[in-house]
Design goal:
Length: 253
């Protein structure tokens, strides 16, 4: 947002909220430094976003009935606009078109989805499916059919957050391949928890190697499932969030 009326109005609202808060929660550790400059020494705590466990209500997308059947599925589920740089993932799919073991599924909505569908058609990407947004109740049914979760953020981003789709991937126990902006906390998080690979170099060859590494890892599927589940339970479950919030106010003076 340029520094016009909308910017100054939103800045005013933000400062008012900081002033009345007993504690300020941020989604990512890298945001603490930024908020400290604006918050008049209010307590700041990293409160991760969270997802509640959901039951399987099925999904209208049946991968076994599409041209991707029998392949290991790399899925991107979420918004598809300028901020996400989905074109990078489509170029990755184009580069891996000769690999008949891997398929790419994109599900969501956004300002550029029509353009991405045209790109896939123009380049005859028979390893790609692009589907319109599904109901949130269908996410479980979708992800249980998939093997790798994709995260993509435009490298021009200046702030840091943990995308909700990453949490969904962890909840459903599938490893992640992430291309994000430099310095994003997701890079260290994925590395430390060993739940996939995350990079900020925007290099298609690097992403391709990481996908192949996950797919070819002997016995890796169960190991990744356990690591993803452990990370979800530790940081991103509703139980973990509620315990953290209650703990703070119990100790608040």
């Amino acid at each position: 947002i340029s520094k016009g009326p909308a910017y100054w109005f939103l800045t005013f609202v933000a400062k008012r909220q900081y002033a009345v808060a007993d504690i300020i929660g941020v989604q990512s550790a890298s945001n603490v430094t930024f908020i400290k400059k604006e918050s008049d020494d209010r307590p700041i705590e990293v409160l991760h976003n969270w997802n509640s466990r959901t039951k399987d209500e099925g999904c209208r997308i049946k991968i076994a009935q599409t041209r991707l059947r029998g392949r290991k599925i790399c899925v991107y589920a979420g918004n598809m606009g300028i901020a996400q740089d989905i074109e990078l993932l489509l170029k990755l799919a184009k580069n891996m078109q000769s690999n008949k073991l891997i398929g790419f599924l994109f599900v969501g909505r956004g300002s550029l989805i029509t353009q991405y569908k045209e790109y896939a058609n123009e380049h005859s990407l028979n390893n790609v499916l692009i589907e319109d947004e599904i109901q949130s109740s269908e996410i479980h049914g979708l992800l249980k059919q998939c093997d790798i979760g994709l995260v993509s953020l435009n490298r021009a981003h200046k702030t840091h957050n943990i995308p909700g789709k990453f949490i969904s991937y962890m909840q459903h126990e599938i490893p992640v391949i992430a291309s994000v902006n430099p310095g994003n906390d997701l890079i260290q998080l994925v590395h430390d928890a060993v739940v996939g690979y995350a990079t900020s170099d925007g290099n298609i060859r690097t992403l391709e190697k990481h996908i192949n590494d996950i797919v070819s890892c002997a016995g890796g599927e169960d190991t990744y499932k356990k690591r993803c589940a452990a990370l979800y339970n530790k940081l991103y479950s509703s139980e973990a969030a509620s315990e953290q919030i209650i703990s703070f106010f119990k100790n608040y003076r």
